[in-house]
Structures are given as structure tokens and as C-alpha cells.
Amino acid sequence: MPASKKIQDSIERASWIRKMFEEGSARKAKFGAENVFDFSLGNPNLEPPAKFDQALRELAQSSVPGLHAYMANSGLPETRQAVADYLGRQNRATFTVDDVVMTVGAGGGLNVVFKTILNPGEEVIIPGPYFVEYNFYLDNHQGVPRVVSTKPDFSLDFGAIADAMTEQTRAVLINSPNNPTGNVYDEKEITQLGELLVESSEKLGRTIYLISDEPYRRIIYDGITVASIFDAYQESFVVTSFSKDLSLPGERIGYAAVNPAMSDKEMICAGMVLCNRILGYVNAPAIMQRILPELLEESVDVSLYKKKRDLLCDGLASFGYEIKKPGGAFYLFPPTPIADDVAFVAALQEENILTVPGSGFGGPGHFRIAYCVEDRVIEKALPGFERVMKKYQG
Ligand SMILES: Cc1ncc(COP(=O)(O)O)c(C=O)c1O
Questions:
Q1: Per-residue pLDDT at 394 exceeds 70
Q2: Which of 278, 337, 281, 330 is nearest to 308 (CA)?
Q3: Closest ligand 1 atom to the C-alpha of 249?
């Protein structure tokens, strides 16, 4: 057996992504890449801000000794200090260098946090629809996902979260702005979630952590703000990256931060630093850490994503799709006009429009459109979206 049984099963479970990718590649080969409208991946189409290129160029021309050397597993102190200062500006608490560990993207950060806190078989409650890689990340550390539904508008269902709490619950994992829905939880929800976690921790006699996965925090529209989970709950982690807001997904740079008031913080942080090392990351990419302090307040031009969102939402709504403009990220997650979301996505494929069935995110009866693509891709795809809708309208 070439791969372990478990990995063979995982390959099988993840196969719809591969199938979509293969179908997309086949269509691009047959019809030409410009005639295939690929909304299947959350790979930002915008280039990083000019300031990033500038900082990279300056660093390359400098002669910093040991630029490429190993460093502390937590990251460069000056980078962590800059992140701590940034977090201090964004939240009520004051952060120190010890509250921040630089990570290999948000994916690396989540693995570090899960490995640090999970005992085998412990559960993490995840409001769905959700980013499915969480299942694999949890499985890496013998954690168990407990997916709970959100309300039809994708807001948190506190009854469902409370009902999912067991003796084995270790954490609740949220993601706002959300992949795949684009939904942003409002401040009232985050406050209420904090209150529920205080109550549940008391009732169960153990700390239930809140982990907030926030790579889309700065991609928000219409004056919406993303509430601080640090202000709402003491036993909390923020995990994030610069993959989306600075368009640097290939550079694998992010961080995990703990609430400065977290109980047993020293042990948790020591655990995170060790886990960063023994997961084989060792430390987050050095060059990115060097230039990050200059870029913490920067992001891509979010108004360009807003334009794409509006173009797509207005077009789809005019064809009869049920559309509510999401407040953040670069995804739409509309209901499919037929119950079978896989069949609906297949019908779109016939129009060379590649999207992802909601079932792949624990949200059947929906489909995900990642609109981080060129405007002309949206413009050229709209007639196909209209034809498919007409087909089902009869
Ligand atoms: C919700 C969510 N969390 C985490 C990640 C992983 O991000 P990174 O590339 O920073 O590891 C992604 C990437 O698409 C995401 O959508």
C-alpha cells in the first residue's frame, strides 16, 4: 500500500476538489483559458500593494547579516513587537512580543494552536458552512470537528452551539469574514458568544477556547467593522495571515496571537512556539518577517473587490438568483435554484463556469462563487449564469 490508509481516505474525501480542478483544466485545454470562467479558488487576483515590492527590493539590496538564518521559533522579536503594537491599536488590550507567534500562513497557525491545546478525541465546535481544510487540520492533531448549523442568514445559532457542548469540547472555531459565505458576525453576536463560552466553561468545569480564524479581516465593505474577539472573551486566540489582504498566499506568512489576559498563557505560548518548531515549520519565512512591520496597515485596494462583488451580485439578482450582498471576503454563497447543488454546479460547468457545490463546505443547497477574478471574467460569465437560471425557471 503506497500511502497510509488514512491518507488514502483523505485523498478520497478531498477528491471533489481534484475533480473540479481536472474538469476545469480539461475545459481550458478544449475551449481556451479565456473562455472558461474559473470562480472555484480563493486565490486573490490582485497584485500585492506597491509598497510590498518596494520593501522587498530595498531588503534585497541591503546587507542584513544572517538574513536567511534560522531564528527563534516564535519569529523575529521586532516583527512580533510590530504585530503586538498593531493589535494594541485594534483591540482594547495591550499586547507584548510574547503574545505573538509568527506562523506559516493561517493554515500553519491553526495547526500550531490545535496541536498546542488538543488532547486526543477532543472536540472543536465549528459553525457551518465552513472552510473544509479545518477537518484535516484537526485530524492532524487527533481533534474531532463538531459542525453546527448557522441560521439561514449565516449568523450564529447560539442554541446549536450550546447543544453541541460536551465534556470533550475544547474550543469553538469561528471565521469572520467567512469562507465560503462572506458573512461577518456583528459585535452583538461576538459579545454573546463570549458570554456563552464563559457560561459553558463554568458549567463543564474546563476552559473552552475561542479560536478566531481571520485572514479576511481587512477585506470588508459598506463601512462594516469586524468585532474584536479579544475584547469579548478572555480565553481566545486570533489566527490570521497576509494571504488575502496583501495578496501573498504563496509566501506563507501569518501569525497566531493569544489574548494577553488568557489563563495559563505562559504554558500555552511555550506550547505554540514548540509546536511551530516540531511541526517542521521551524519558523515563519524570514524575508516576509523582515518586511512585514512596514506593511501592517496596508492592504490591497478593497474597493476593487467591492466593484466585483457589486457587478456579480447585481447581475445575478437581476436573473432571479437569491442574493444578499455579503459584508466581507470575496465569496458569494447563494442558494441553488434546485436542491441538488452538485447538479446545479455541473449545469454551470456546461457553460464553462466553474464554481463549487455548497456540500463541499457543509452547506448543501448552495454554491460558492469566488469572485477574486478579473472584472472581465465576471462580465463574460454573466450570460451563462442567466441561461442556467432560465433553464431551472422553466
Ligand atoms: C477561512 C480560511 N482560513 C484559512 C485559510 C488558509 O490561509 P493561509 O493561506 O494563510 O494558510 C484560508 C485560505 O483560503 C481560508 O479561506
A1: no
A2: 330
A3: 9
